[in-house]
Structures are given as structure tokens and as C-alpha cells.
Amino acid sequence: MIDPAEVAATIEKYHMNIRGRKVLACVSGGADSMALLHFLNANAGCLGIEKLLACHFNHGIRGAESDRDEQAVRDYCAELGVQLFCAGGRMREREKPRGMSEEMWARNLRRSFIKECCRETGAVAAMAHSLNDSVETMLFNISRGSGIRGLRGISPVYGGTVRPFIETTREQIEWYCRENHIPFVTDSTNLSDEYSRNIIRHSIMPVFERVNPAFLGNAKRMMQHAEDAFSYIQDQCEKLLSEAGREGGYSCSAFAGADGYIARCAVKQLLDERFDMIDGRMVEECLLVATGEKSSVEIRKGIYFLKKGGIFSISEASGRTQDEGYCLKVEPGKTYLAGGFLVSLQELKGIVYDIVKKNSPKECFNLIDYDKIKGDIYLRTRREGDSFSSARRKNTKTVKKLLKEMKVPPEQRDSFPILADSAGVVWLPGQGVSASAAADSATVHPLKIIIEERLDDEG
Question: What is the pTM of this model?
Fold first, then answer.
């Protein structure tokens, strides 16, 4: 049975703040939401609810079954005397937005409708998610590689929505429906294992409960520990963001000097505030920008996580600037400005024998065998993991280490020009040509690399 005192304690514990306010019950027609509607209506007085309202969104995906659900909600709200707001998505008649799953599309439509109802009525939305739902969500997040944030399950309060049944089990809800003769409908999609959540519900949860009948209670405590840890991490992230904040963005040096885990979480927070569905790989790429090890990452088409002058930000400008993060496809006979240098490739004709076959070290230093190039040649900045195998010194080192050995100033290393093909770096200023692309006595199409520094006052 659902104890009103226990639900009231949950509402108080998570600061749901429904006393003295209108509450909008979000009702799908299923057992959980119909039980919530009944419970809030029966206990409105002791919970201090000013007025109970309800809403239902008919996605229209399941045809006649969707209409059946709507009618069930209409009938029960009329029986209880609760004002109901309804809307329809007509999703079967509309074209699904590109790049969005049907499930996400349906969720977004429903959320928009609920928010609009709350704006019009001044009510706080209440959803019927149970402890089982929260544990299932936690297990689903684990399957996707979640961190501490996902181990919290479903938040009791989020974005103006409260969940009074978040510590109530599905077994209690089903018992409550039977005892109070509450009508409900069953969504046929919940019976199929086509969806990942249903597999967790039907196959995985029962196994955990067989291993330990106290699984739900133990999972609840674990999620609370994760919530406490997440709150602490959030505080540390806010502190870092506050200390690193600069005009136009955040300080790379502040992030580089911060605890690695906190810096990573702070970057994820910045991304989550603006984008949906950010994966771990993208967070790691953006972290390299935030700590100054990389110049830019394209997050979405035309939107970059970008570093300029030791400050990083999310920018809708191009991530390829003249001096940071460039990658230019180059052609022989043309000159390119990159990182403060003018670089060009000159085709040599008629002098191959003099330079190559006589093996003049000085002349061969910047000479490439065009036929050894894999794919196209690019003039670009260094990338994490770039290495250079010197034809002259017969050794291999990372470009990062070589730039340090060459005493290139740290602030210039991210804009320092290199030439590369699809296989890797083929030329580095001051180091010459790589062993893989060096001209030799068999070279037929040599290219001479010409580089000169461009002075700032030349305009």
C-alpha cells in the first residue's frame, strides 16, 4: 500500500514545494500515472495542494490504442472532477525531424505541451516515475557507459517537474490500484522487448531481485550516494568555472592546472547546457582544447569548441583560424600563409640530377618526392599523437617533443606549420623531410619546400 505519510516525506525530503500551489498531474493512462492522479486528488488537503489539474498528450503513434488511452484519461478525470488539458501530436501524419529518433521526437513534443500547460496555469508538473523506473534508468545509463551523473537514476525534481512516487515501488502502485479500483490501460509497446528499457524491465531487473530480494532498496541507497557525490562535484565544477571565467570564455591555464576529473566534468557541463546527446569522445576532445593541448573541435556543423589566445569558448565562427587549428590542402606552385609563415611548394624540372643524384644534403633537406605522397598534401597544425621520422637523423620523435627541443615558444606551437599526407607528417620546419617522403636517386617528381617568416608589420 502507498502510505500518504511516506509520500509526503519524499515530497519534503526533495523540496518539491507543492504546498500552496497548483499541481498538474501528467497522466498517460497507465497504472502509475492513474494511481498518482488518484493519490494527489485523495490527499490534496493534507499535501496542501491549492488545485489539482491533469494533462494528457496523445502522440497518435499507436492509432486506435492511443485514442483509447486518451478516452480512459478523460473518463477518469471526469469521474474525479479534475480539469484536464489534452493535445495531440498526430505523429503518424507528420514527417519525423531529420536526425531524431521517434522516441526522442515523441518525448520532446510531450515536454513542450507540459511546459505550455504549466505556463498557462502557473502549476508545477507532477510525473509518476517510481523507484523501479529510476533503477531501470540507472541500469540503462550503466549500459551506455555513464559516469556518476547517470548512477543517480531519475532526478526527483528536475526543470520544474516533481516526482512524488520516486521512492515508491511499482509493486506498491499496483497494489494501490487494486485496492482503490483504479482503472488503467496498458501500452502494448511496454510488453515488447524491442526497446532497451523493456529488456531491462523484463529480463535484467528480475535477475537482480533473485540474487538479492533487497535489490531495490540497495539500489536506492546507491543512487543516493551517487547524488551526494554528484552534488559535491557540481560545486567543484562551479568553483572552477567561476575562477576560470574570462571575458569571452574561460582560461585554458586554469583548466590545465585543475584536477583532471573536475576539469572533465566542467567541460561536460558546458556542453550539456547547450547540446543534447554529447558522448564521452566529444567531451575528451573538448577537454584537450580546454587545457590548451588542441586548438578546436567541431561539436556540431558550424559550431566549435575553440581556443584563441589562451581562452576557450563555444563559438559559431569557423574553427579554422589563420593562426590556430588550420588545415589547408596545398598545391604545387601556390603560396600559403600559415602560423606567421609563407609556405610554398616549387616543382623542379631539369635539375633533379644535380640535386638528388649528387645527394647534396643541404639541397635535399627540404626536397620531397611527390610520388611518395599518400593522397593529398595538407599544411596544418600539429595534432595529438603526431610523430616525425627524420630522413636526415634516422630517428622518430613526437612533433610535440621536437617543437619543445627546437625552443618554439609555447604560445606558437599550436600554430606552427607542418606538411602532412594521409599517412602522417612529411615535413617539419627546421627538421626537414620525413624518411617516408624524402627524395632520392630514383626521384622523378621532386618538390622543393620554400618557407619564410612573415613579419607582423608587413600588413
Answer: 0.63
